Amino acid sequence: MRTFIQKLGKSMMGPLSIIVAAGLLLGITTILTNASLVGEAFASAAGVQVVVGAVSALVGKVFGLLPILFAISVATGMVKEDKEIAGFAVVICFVLFHVMLNYMLGLNGITAENTAIDYLTSHGSTTLEAYQINAAYDTQLGIFTYRMGIFGGIVTGLWTAFIHNKFHTQKLPVAFSFFAGNRFVPIMIILTVPFVAIVSYFVWPFFSMLIDGLGTVISKSGPFGLFLYGFAERLLIPTGLHHVLNQLIRFTPVGGTAMIDGTVVSGALNIFQAELVAKNMDMNVFHQATRFLTQGTHPFMMFGLPGACYAMYKTAYAKEQPKVRGMLLASALTSFATGITEPIEFSFIFISPILWVFHAFMAGMSFLIMSLLQVGVGNAGGGFVDLFIFGILQGTYTKWYFCVILGIVYFFAYFFVFKYVIEKKNLKTPGRDVEDSSDDVVQVEASELGTTILKAIGGKENIRDIDNCISRLRLILNDTSVVDEAALKTTGSLGIIRINENNIQVVYGPKVEEATHALKQAAGTYK
């Protein structure tokens, strides 16, 4: 189950890159309408309004496609092979799933027409009751259905992956051999997904109430809830399950629900993006969304963890400092600019529970303090790029400067705490483990990267599956006990995580795509 959840979490990361890129584009264009920055004449110019309107329409459509993007990402991420077939089949599954829900709703007299707000208010419902009823339904690809959001995508993606893994090698009698194998997958989807939809029709209202209730609890828990979110999110880093927590907050009612320009929007990141282009920005709704977003990560990603790097450098043995300087500096700059923190975190969380808990505690406090100060910096990155576009360039209403002020405090807090604990406990951080930082650890040439990794993990015959997330090479092996960690260090590995006897993760940081590509080529599995 743990392996399944980890793989699901990684699969759900697919749409995030698209959403982050779309969000950055939207953030840049909203700057063009900020009269205090570009002047009233420029901000109100017809050409500028056309550009902003076009970008808003495009980004809005991308966010509207989130459910099917999640469906495709989950389906292709959870299957073992022939991922393109799963990508084809899941579109069929998604459409038929919602068509069946539409049919079931119609049987019970529920249609787009009689759940419209105007219709409900004209037939005796109060405005609040009308909005509550209307919010339960949505339109996906032109199909009136339940408002399931990304959960509809996850359900259809998982079902497609299940059917694909079970039937993509199915053999049939010779007379029907044309329909065997991969062609049998969409056939089984067509035959089975209506039953999944029927079950969902009865189950979803209860599940929706549970999710809405969880969102209400988080909303009413105030700053303490934010602390728990930040604390738990960092504690889950080694397991990879933080991806699941983040996506629930960003794209589902767990992260809040708001009415923006007459449309119900759920999820902290969705609400933030919608508020950026809203006709009349509601600052209360805006702050309710951003409290879960990058404003809570800037202090420890941009300042705290670089402070930890500096502490590790200062506590390294004198003769080892030149060897670790480049690695620690690169990790610190990566965290500062992009918010990719795992290369730093994996240098201490497995050797010091004290520093791990301290880091998680500081993350929770960062989310809490930023919310209390009413900071309003959003998006899903966490580095300087997000702070610059969604904070500094947006204007002082975001109170971005508090991120920097608290960040400076975090830099010194991390530096002194890390320095004290490392020296007090004699921790083997980079530059203090003589064996790991000795001259024997020579980085392999780029041309030998794939073959070296392949040999270190036990050869091609030991591999079941090769995948990666934003910073880790994720492997399913026949036996993880044969993995040579010392050999992996020569390929740039920052450490390994043994999930169980079959699952292992190798931390590479920003180099992970290069390592994955090289390993797949060496193993002959690259497609």
UniProtKB/TrEMBL annotation:
GO terms for cellular component: plasma membrane. InterPro entries: Glu_permease_IIB, PTrfase_EIIB_Cys, PTS_EIIC, PTS_EIIC_1, PTS_Glucose_EIICBA, PTS_IIB_1. GO terms for molecular function: kinase activity; protein-N(PI)-phosphohistidine-sugar phosphotransferase activity; protein-phosphocysteine-sugar phosphotransferase activity. Its main location: membrane. One of its GO terms (biological process) is phosphoenolpyruvate-dependent sugar phosphotransferase system. The active site is at 469 (phosphocysteine intermediate). PANTHER family: CYTOCHROME C-TYPE SYNTHESIS PROTEIN AND PTS TRANSMEMBRANE COMPONENT, PTS SYSTEM, IIBC COMPONENT. This is PTS maltose transporter subunit IICB. It comes from Holdemanella porci.
